[in-house]
Amino acid sequence: MPEFKIYLGDPYKLEKAGFAAIQAELKALFKAALGKDANVVVERAMTRQQVLSTQLLVYLVPSHIESVAKKFAATEKKALELGVDGTTAIGQSLVGSEVYVRQKSPSDIALIVAHEALHNKLRLDNVRLHTGKQSGSLAAEETGPKLTPADKDLLRRAIKAHSEQWLGGWDAAQSGDPLDGP
């Protein structure tokens, strides 16, 4: 039985994000790709965790203003343009993803997490994911309530990929300024 673990990093200890509903939506999305018997674990992580390269960590942050990915990009000396709903920063060896949750439903947040998972686990920047050879509405950020067969295939590929996750989001949130030192 395939297993996949997703950590929802919560460095700002968000109260109104609807974590239980987000967890349920994410489980349903990833089970749609892996099969109904798959063991998909979604865990809220309010403190730093040990995350394996076979797992996924996506930070949930209120908005662009509280971005933790900006700090990761700064430590990697990379320019980073924040996305509308979420951002994935791809470094030399680490990858960091975040989703902006303010004024979004749990189902929208789950879809955005799944989209950022494609960037994260497949290590694809915006050009390569959104306009490259990838197919499926999830890659194009146009997903409706159901995943297409191409979406499911992309998620299965992403789940199998190894990607070292950036664990500095909790420290970045505590520093007060995401651009403050490492």
Key features?
6 strands, alpha/beta, 6 helices, 182 residues, 35% helix
Task: Explain what this protein looks like in three dimensions.
This protein has 182 residues and is an alpha/beta fold. The chain has a single domain (3-174), classed as 3-Layer(aba) Sandwich (Collagenase (Catalytic Domain)). Helices cover 35% and strands 19% of the residues. The protein has helices at residues 19-34, 69-75, 106-122, 126-131, 149-160, 169-174, and strands spanning 3-9, 39-45, 56-61, 86-90, 94-100, 164-165. Strands 1, 2, 3, 4, 5 and 6 form a six-stranded mixed beta sheet that branches. Strand 1 (3-9), helix 1 and strand 2 (39-45) form a beta-alpha-beta unit. Helix 1 (19-34) packs across helix 3, helix 1 crosses helix 5 and helix 3 (106-122) packs across helix 5. It is globular, with a radius of gyration of 15 Å.
Oligomer: single chain
Q: How many DSSP helices?
A: 6
Strand elements, count? 6
- End-to-end C-alpha gap: 39 Å
**Main sheet properties:** 6 strands, mixed
**Average pLDDT score:** 87
CATH topology: Collagenase (Catalytic Domain)
